[in-house]
Amino acid sequence: MAGLGVAAVAIVGGWVLYMRSIDQPAFQIVRKDGNIEIRDYGALTVAEVARSGDRESAVRAGFGPLARYIFAKDRQGEKIAMTAPVTQQRRPDADTAWLVHFVMPEGKDISSLPQPATEDVRLLTLPATRRAVIRFSGRANDQMIKSNEKRLLTWLEAEGYAINGPAVYAYYDDPLTPGVFRRNEVMYQVKR
After folding, report:
1. Bridge partners for 29 per DSSP
2. Which domains does the chain have, with CATH numbers?
3. Peptide bond preceding 85: is omega within 30 degrees of 0, i.e. cis?
């Protein structure tokens, strides 16, 4: 039994290390206060889909078309490397609609990426931005997200930062990663 336990821990540990090795967007930390950071990001190229419904079902529904795009299931050409995080935010023009993004690998832009096979997936470039970010672990349920979002908003108000846009929820791990090892973030674009 002890051997099986050690093997299980090794497998989970190896998987977590693999997930941490996936490309992530580069950023500069401007300020850090515990699990809250102010970060400067350069322009990011993303693949985007829009989905309606509650937060959890929208991110699940958005993941499929984006995965089919990067793994060349719905289009011709080479696969695109998996990156993290998957991000989600409310669509500015609708209360129940969400935008779900896969960040494209560094060095890829719209001109160097294969075109999506359907209109469901859209490629766009997000401009460079400064973001306030709170990081937390666990399975990102609505209660956990709202609690961390509230903590971040309280901190931003106390520190005099102005928010510019909706909250962005970032998920760094796949569904098989145990909750304690998961990395999640709530982000707000803030005015410089």
Report:
1. 39
2. 2-189 (3.20.80.10)
3. yes
Amino acid at 102: F
- Give me 173's structure tokens: 């791990």
Helix %, strand %, coil % of the chain (to 5): 30, 30, 40
Which H or E run contains 90? strand 86-90
- Spatial distance between the Cα atoms of 168 and 160, rounded to a whole number of angstroms: 20
Task: With a cut of 50, say whether residue 8 has pLDDT above it.
Answer: no
And the tokens for 157? 């108000």
Q: What is the pTM of this model?
A: 0.87
Query: pLDDT tens digits for 21-67?
Result: 689 999 999 999 999 999 999 999 999 999 999 999 999 999 999 99
Residue 157's pLDDT is: 96
